Fold this protein.
Amino acid sequence: MKHLRLRTALTFLGPVLALAATLGAEETGAPPVLRKAVVSLRPHVEVRGDYIPLPACLDAAALEPELQAEAATLFVGASPALHEVRRLRVSAIRAALRKLGPAAETIRLEGPEEIEVVRVVADDAGTGSSLESAWEQAIREYAGTRSDLAGAELVLQILDCRPALTWIGPDPLRVEELKPVDEATIGPKVQFAGVLVGGPDGPLTMQCTARVAAYRDVCVAAQPLRTGQVCRPANGLRRRVAIAEGECYVIDPEDLAGQKVLRTVAAGTPVTLGDLQPPPCVRAREEVTVVLIRGGARLQTRGTAQQDGAPGDTILVLNPTTKKTIKARVLGPGQVEAHP
């Protein structure tokens, strides 16, 4: 009887197991689920055509290869006219991404709520060169000589330069001896002066007005930094932001370690060297080497620091032999310099 029951159970379970195996095979053959991707938006975009390509607005390299190929065929909207700027909302980017189908649900966008799109000036089909192109190239070359703009991405738009001509000749138009009229290189309306060469009328002194912005990856405050706070690398994030000329920015969050905040920095704001005080490399009551400079002579002696000091700070140092206190400038760990 037991054997009969076992054979009956197997007879009943056989089709069920076969069906389960079939379903398992079907699930194994299902298309793989696309991984989720975090895609960064670019705050500023330069376009040359009549439409804004989707890949120009975001870091397409974060997408799956098959999605990259599909995204390359998509456009977000019409480009702005020359001398105009279009502010593109993130909702327009998401609408373009939805054309990728269900895969769009795996993409999370991060970055600014608006993208600034600038239509730049291109040479006329290689047959000549425009005056605007000549000014643009000269401004970029000039900015490249500025140490405070080194490594920055320059976004510029020629607002006014007259006459607006295109020269077809043996030599392209170019602007030489360029310099800012008011010493400012970055701003909504910056005036430049230069000498136009290569045109039909010989060298001409001219002026141009341009909108110029510079962007660079720097360290921004991850949360508000309070006056007197001692920083850690976790207090900063690396982010591409608009920078101001003449400022010295902290580039790597690791450089925040041990730095003391001199003034409050709001979250998301770039951190400058002026916002921070380096950690002391000389401590009060620490024995230091004192470099004495008298005329052309350099002497070394020992002393005791009376104050904490970072490189460049002036502190009081006690001469243990004479019991006199002198002012000295901190050079580095355990070393100061004095001019008695």
